[in-house]
Amino acid sequence: MSSESRKKPVKSFDVIIIGAGSIGTPTAFYLARAGLKMLVLDSAASVGQGSNKRAIGGIRATHSDPAKISLCQRSIEIFSSWKETQGDDIEWVRGGYCFVAYREEEMDNLQQLLKGQKSFNLNINWLNTNELLEIVPDLNPHKLLGGTFSPDDGNASPLLAVHSFYQQSRKLGAEYHFNEEVTGFIVNKGKVISILTNLGEYSARYFILAAGGESREVGELLSLEIPVFPDSHEAAITEPVQRFLQPMIVDIQPKPDSSNFYFYQHYTGQIVFCITPSPNIWGHDIRESSAFLPMVSKRILEVMPRLFHLRVRRTWRGLYPMTPDGFPLVGAIKEPEGLILATGMCGQGFMLGPGIAELLTRMVCEETTANDAMILEYLNPYRQFRSQELLK
Ligand SMILES: Cc1cc2nc3c(=O)[nH]c(=O)nc-3n(C[C@H](O)[C@H](O)[C@H](O)COP(=O)(O)OP(=O)(O)OC[C@H]3O[C@@H](n4cnc5c(N)ncnc54)[C@H](O)[C@@H]3O)c2cc1C
Description:
The protein is of the alpha/beta class. It is built from 10 helices and 18 strands. The strands form 3 sheets. Strands 1, 2, 8, 9, 10, 11, 17 and 18 form an 8-stranded mixed beta sheet that branches. An 8-stranded mixed beta sheet has the order 5-6-4-13-14-15-12-16, sandwiched between helices.
């Protein structure tokens, strides 16, 4: 038998997604629902094992730009109605988001942003100190100037959500291959025609790169320079206590060792929290550090002294797939054709997932709208990285 005749036949799909994470899995669901033959490849052993399972579950539409606002408004509609539409509980809670200000600088920044946010009809308001303390009575009142409150934002479980997208997409015929790493592409006449893995070769009309923090390395297989740089962040969860806190609390005040932090109480009682270290910790290392807890607990206790006696149960570390300006990269690659980027989600990939998944589906089905064109302009992978996202 010749080596040619021994070769396994190449299986064909309409779309192949690289990465079964916060973006790839919902995208497989919407593309399969549109009737397309789908394959999702992931090097990990099961769904959501990259950054997805390390996210703390915050979901907000209150961003600083129209693209992310629009995408996350749609994500909130999807997350909040998921139980009714699909029958799976993903622990969605509409607890709201609250950005606090203890200094004039943060108050001015947040109030400046508020003007733009209101022009996009977001349900967000500035609350003075007393109004804010009515919503969050346990905030430290000392020097509190007020803050924004957006009651329509919320939280859900990243793992339950990704699992539900996975199972629902499989019911619609999507195929998933785990423990299968993408190792190369075959390009013919300027177009990607198939993908190579450690186990085989698969062809498709479109390939969607949703490999999160590994996107740069996957791009290098095609000699593309995809500006996604993993930046590690740690998070933790406490023991459960009786419910006393509804919204996600975010403090954007920069300090010498950290730029911002956020926390909320899960509806089963635990406080879940996260901090952005300063300077950033670049790289793929996801081993927890001993520096994290002293740094974050000091800051949280300044804002909410009542948490002093809570015991931390577990810490973990994961990656934000960062871009130079803090905005995702979504759009078709010009050369070679056939590859669509859906990466660089920074600290917001879970909340952006369903909105981006529907957008990618309209792109593949050639059904994009004027609003999609606006979003794609903002997230264009070929943009100049001049501006900086204000609410990273
Ligand atoms: C501590 C922490 C807290 C966070 N909190 C929030 C939050 O509250 N809200 C929010 O919206 N976001 C949050 N995030 C950010 C969020 O987790 C990410 O933005 C999001 O998960 C990125 O999604 P993704 O699909 O791009 O990547 P991932 O979810 O990482 O998926 C990428 C997948 O690609 C696979 N892959 C990589 N390379 C290959 C290859 N060569 N071949 C095959 N498969 C490959 C990986 O195994 C992985 O499963 C947080 C992140 C961290 C670390």
